[in-house]
Amino acid sequence: MAGAGSAAVSGAGTPVAGPAGRDLFAEGLLEFLQPAVQQLDTHVHAVRESQVELREQIDNLATELCRINEDQKVALDLDPYVKKLLNARRRVVLVNNILQNAQERLRRLNHSVAKETARRRAMLDSGVYPPGSPSK
């Protein structure tokens, strides 16, 4: 991708060179990605909630199976099924932890992006440019 960092195109289709072009490109890219990041965050949150529900249902089922096993006059060996349920619960908890970590990283990234966007907008609005960039 030759020259991708050196020039951007304005809304009118004319190239904008230098730091202003990079800022314009970065701002456009951030605005483009923001809805996707928010949608992903919403979906991750929904999955985490459903996994908490699933974990609770597995716990309830395991408890019920243990109770049934104790109440049976005929010896039914439900222990393997209880172990399978507990193993499934462990996997659900593991996936939930992974999702929680990913969501936290996504939240921090989203916060950093919003902070950087606000900083760049403030710089553009005030006319203050970082050292080494061309003035208006």
UniProtKB/TrEMBL annotation:
InterPro entries: Snapin, Snapin/Pallidin/Snn1. Residues 85-119 form a coiled coil. It is found in: Cytoplasmic vesicle, Secretory vesicle, Synaptic vesicle membrane. It comes from the Eukaryota. Keywords: Coiled coil, Cytoplasm, Cytoplasmic vesicle, Membrane, Synapse. The keyword Cytoplasm applies. PANTHER family: SNARE-ASSOCIATED PROTEIN SNAPIN (PTHR31305:SF2). Belongs to the SNAPIN family. Component of the BLOC-1 complex, a complex that is required for normal biogenesis of lysosome-related organelles (LRO), such as platelet dense granules and melanosomes. In concert with the AP-3 complex, the BLOC-1 complex is required to target membrane protein cargos into vesicles assembled at cell bodies for delivery into neurites and nerve terminals. The BLOC-1 complex, in association with SNARE proteins, is also proposed to be involved in neurite extension. Plays a role in intracellular vesicle trafficking and synaptic vesicle recycling. This is SNARE-associated protein Snapin. It comes from Echinops telfairi (Lesser hedgehog tenrec). The lineage of its organism: Eukaryota, Metazoa, Chordata, Craniata, Vertebrata. The gene is SNAPIN.
